[in-house]
């Protein structure tokens, strides 16, 4: 299999070319959450807005997205039906969870990764001093069909002009929009339904769902560090697996796989050669490598270099990460 540079360019989303959407979700007008930016890089993600730009529509069994937020900006409490895995590209972030966001929390630094257990309400905020960026992997081609919001999020949004229809679309009264005939507002979860969302402590989540950057660096000095998967530090099988690569774990020889592969640099610059061309991947770039394409990776400069590699698996993208 060969691929021209132009064909590969269409499969690489550069960090500087990312197109944000500031009205992606129901809390887009809610104070404290109204400055966040949502990015859909591979697949349609879970955005509720028709304004959301999708960079690569073809999905490899999972979706790739990102969230950019200024300091003190937060993403409201929500849940997903499939896996949601984040790694920190820029900044310092606090992840919190539970019905009211008080059951547990963890602070992640640049390069750290968290596989948030499926079926719990979760939120996150930038607690750093500059604009921050987190990258996300969502399980499934359709990312579980959307977002499940904590009831208070829907109520707060309504008070600030945004209504979510039961069709999963947003309507903004500030723009003169209203629910179409025959479309009802998204119903709030009942108290009985809320019992299905576990309240997990920090001690329950940290050991099996969080991996630290420097621990992964230490484990990848001779071979890629298996981060998420049946044999990973985070033992989950949500329909994709994640490896962590550094300068020491790259043999430099070309390889091909029968899986879809997505490369996401965290630190340093990476030269990627393939059968048909060559390019350099920078931190924040996302490259979708098709099955069967022979390619190789080498750090393009001296110094620190780290990269996440995601591949689809045959495992179902379901409730594999759930705790109770």
From TrEMBL:
<dbReference type="InterPro" id="IPR014710">
    <property type="entry name" value="RmlC-like_jellyroll"/>
</dbReference>
<protein>
    <submittedName>
        <fullName>Cupin</fullName>
    </submittedName>
</protein>
<feature type="domain" description="Cupin type-2">
    <location>
        <begin position="71"/>
        <end position="134"/>
    </location>
</feature>
<dbReference type="InterPro" id="IPR013096">
    <property type="entry name" value="Cupin_2"/>
</dbReference>
<dbReference type="GO" id="GO:0046872">
    <property type="term" value="F:metal ion binding"/>
</dbReference>
<dbReference type="InterPro" id="IPR051610">
    <property type="entry name" value="GPI/OXD"/>
</dbReference>
<dbReference type="Pfam" id="PF07883">
    <property type="entry name" value="Cupin_2"/>
</dbReference>
<keyword id="KW-0479">Metal-binding</keyword>
<dbReference type="InterPro" id="IPR011051">
    <property type="entry name" value="RmlC_Cupin_sf"/>
</dbReference>
